[in-house]
Amino acid sequence: MTQFNFLLDEDNAAELVKSIPYADYLGIKIETNLNGQMIFRMPFDKKLIGNPTIKAIHGGILAGFMESSATLAVIGIISHDHLPKCVNMTVEYLRSTRPVDTFCQVQINNPGRRIVHLTVRCWQEDRGDVSLAHCRFLAT
Amino acid sequence: MFKFEKLGDKMFDQSFIEVAVNKFAKRHPGFKDLDFKIESIENGKASMRLPYNKKFVGDPTTGSLHGGVITTLLDTVCGMCVMTTVRKFAPIATIDLRVDYLRPTKPDVDVIADVECYHLTKSVAFLRGYAYLDDEEKEEVAHVTGSFMLNTKGPSFAPASRFSSLLTGGAKNQS
């Protein structure tokens, strides 16, 4: 695992989230955990629900949250005047979600010159991971 | 594009699904924003439209939609497609979903997603499909493959197996 340093501080990051309409729609917030690592929070909102009977968050919304977080993380390691492009992404849904805040953390597996490989881990409360995503981004 | 064909099952034809889905979507806070519209439904196939919305832009410099909203569309169509295959509103769960983004979308152009179920077993449905722009060229935007679990019964509260803590190393998430 490669440690990565964010080029952004938290105020900067909030501004960046505002500049991406979809990330702003999801209400993504960038926070720091006790170990000083960057984590992303998606506060629960009614509009995120997919299955109204068990009030689980929509799988696609969860994928969108993980992709937005991955984009923000890639912006954090490479400075470009344009947004990094997602080539593809695979999402594994491990368990059903609850109507509470969702968190995710991005791990950069290989910050290559052309392709950046990432794993996004997504969880809620103290339970195990809700979903995992593997994404590839174009770094150029 | 798939053409509408009447299903043998009277209870599960397009008009019934449209009424059911529209009723569902009206009460559903998420779908009210996304505004998905059913294009066509066939046995084992489904097609839905995502109207262009400035709220879902991913790159403000080009005005193209965010990948996440394309994924949301594809996930919804896949779920819908499973239901047209098993012909009932069964509870289902996504096992995994892979999306390949081929090109960015264009501003003010709707996106349509066509998905088919190419294999169905007792407990798993396998799907594939693509999303394309609704303009003259009909360029493909994204490809999707996914697998869905059938006959799920809401959230599982089964006690964890005595091996599960060994497999995960007994680790809990540190947030």
Could you outline the blueprint of secondary structure elements for this entry?
The complex is a heterodimer of chains A (140) and B (175).
Chain A: H1 10-19, H2 21-26, E1 29-32, E2 38-42, E3 49-51, E4 56-57, H3 59-77, E5 85-93, E6 102-111, E7 115-123, E8 129-138
Antiparallel strand pairs in A: 1-2, 2-6, 3-4, 5-8, 6-7, 7-8
Chain B: H1 14-27, H2 29-34, E1 37-42, E2 45-50, E3 57-59, E4 64-65, H3 67-86, E5 93-101, E6 111-120, E7 124-133, E8 140-149, H4 164-167
Antiparallel strand pairs in B: 1-2, 2-6, 3-4, 5-8, 6-7, 7-8
Structure in words:
Chain A has 140 residues and is α+β, with helices and mostly antiparallel strands. Chain A has one domain (10-138): Thiol Ester Dehydrase, Chain A (Roll), CATH 3.10.129.10. Chain A is 25% helix and 37% strand. Chain A contains 3 helices and 8 strands, in the order ααββββαββββ. A 6-stranded antiparallel β-sheet of chain A has the order 1-2-6-7-8-5. A two-stranded antiparallel sheet of chain A has the order 3-4. Chain A starts with 9 loop residues before the first helix and ends with a strand. Residues 1-5 of chain A have low confidence and may be disordered. Chain B has 175 residues and is an alpha+beta fold. Chain B has one domain (10-153): Roll (Thiol Ester Dehydrase, Chain A). In chain B, 25% of the residues lie in helices and 32% in strands. Chain B contains 4 helices and 8 strands. In chain B, the strands form 2 sheets. A 6-stranded antiparallel β-sheet of chain B has the order 1-2-6-7-8-5, covered by helices on one side. A two-stranded antiparallel ribbon of chain B has the order 3-4. In chain B, a hairpin with a 3-residue loop joins strand 6 and strand 7 (124-133). The longest helix of chain B has 20 residues, at 67-86. Chain B starts with 13 loop residues before the first helix and ends in an 8-residue tail after the last helix. The interface between A and B is large, with 51 and 45 residues.
